[in-house]
Amino acid sequence: MSYDFATPLDRRQYPSQKWQRYAEDVLPLWVADMDFVSPPEVVSALEERVSHGVFGYGRLTDTLRETLCAWSVDHYGWSIEPDWQVWIPGVVPALHLAAQAFCSPGQAVMTATPIYPPFLRVAERSGRIAERVMLAEPEAPGAPWRLDLEALEASITPQTRLLLWCHPHNPTGRVWDEHELHALGELAERHDLLIVSDELHCDLILDATRRHRPLASLSPALAQRTITLWAPSKTFNIAGLSSACAVIPDPELRRRFREAAEGLLPEVNILGLTASQAAYAQGDAWRRELLVTLNTNLQRLRDHVARWPGVTMTAPEATYLAWLDMREAGLGDSPQRALLDSTRVALSDGADFGCPGFVRLNFGTPTYLLEEALERLDSRLCPAG
């Protein structure tokens, strides 16, 4: 079967954060929400479920648990157990829940920046201490962002209890090397840290030479201190259905996580469960074709960035998100605002990720639409523009 990633789709007919935050003349390349129709297998499963007409409280099925176990083995060589899974309505709630469950007041939550903005709000919202440390910036244009292990270890205090990690990384697109992950795990063991590993983009590896290795799969000891967050939301473009899973091998951590959720988080809704089952069971061919389109779009983006003086980008190894350094582009203190005002293209502001002067660009959109947005950006960023 061939899938369609090119046909124009009017998303303004239904309210959405992406398309209705800005005026109608703005092309939105900001929030991590793709403009592709979800896999037809997912759509068909939802249509069948909706046709039943009864939408009472759902129940997580053994079939879904087993399907995720099979996905983990098939794609990552990690054998997980059904009872390790705690299904929840989203990764962001899980980050906050982990802080409540595993950090006492007076203890600290550590995060490495730049990072997906909700990470930066977890400590404050949960009444815990916030600790931040910068990743190491690229050593040359196009070189990767790196884990600065020395800076990370130097920032750990006696209060540090929980490390929020992102793998693959949002916004830089890094797929962390196995030696980096081993070093991170050893650091966690030395300082008795728990790790929440947000692996939301793990199914979207763009670089064929790279592979995703779940952090918890590196060793049994590391698995006992790691909460892995997975979801079909980004991979299959079903974020609005609010379905995710915390994989927690350690029974005590799993118990505490469940208890912290009681009364605060609802169960995953019935359509989210239906879509998750269809996506993991039948959506892999669609996912593989999606990666072809994303790589085509990434090449278009690289071609344009090469013409923009003062702008650099390390091509993401995963995700459909690009992290652009615009500190030397002459756009003032807020490149995001300058480009929005002058080109009517909406990007994500790097300041929200802890790095002013950067922007994040979402290229998970039909190629014709991406090209239109890039041509608008050319008008401001190219020397002849």
UniProtKB/TrEMBL annotation:
GO terms for molecular function: lyase activity. Pfam families: Aminotran_1_2. Its cofactor is pyridoxal 5'-phosphate. Keywords: Lyase, Pyridoxal phosphate. Residues 25-377 form the Aminotransferase class I/classII large domain. InterPro entries: Aminotransferase_I/II_large, C-S_lyase_PatB-like, Class-II_PLP-Dep_Aminotrans, PyrdxlP-dep_Trfase, PyrdxlP-dep_Trfase_major, PyrdxlP-dep_Trfase_small. The keyword Transcription does not apply. Its EC number is 4.4.1.13. It is an enzyme of class 4 (lyase). The keyword Lyase applies. NCBIfam families: C_S_lyase_PatB. Belongs to the class-II pyridoxal-phosphate-dependent aminotransferase family. MalY/PatB cystathionine beta-lyase subfamily. This is cysteine-S-conjugate beta-lyase. The lineage of its organism: Bacteria, Pseudomonadati, Pseudomonadota, Gammaproteobacteria, Oceanospirillales.
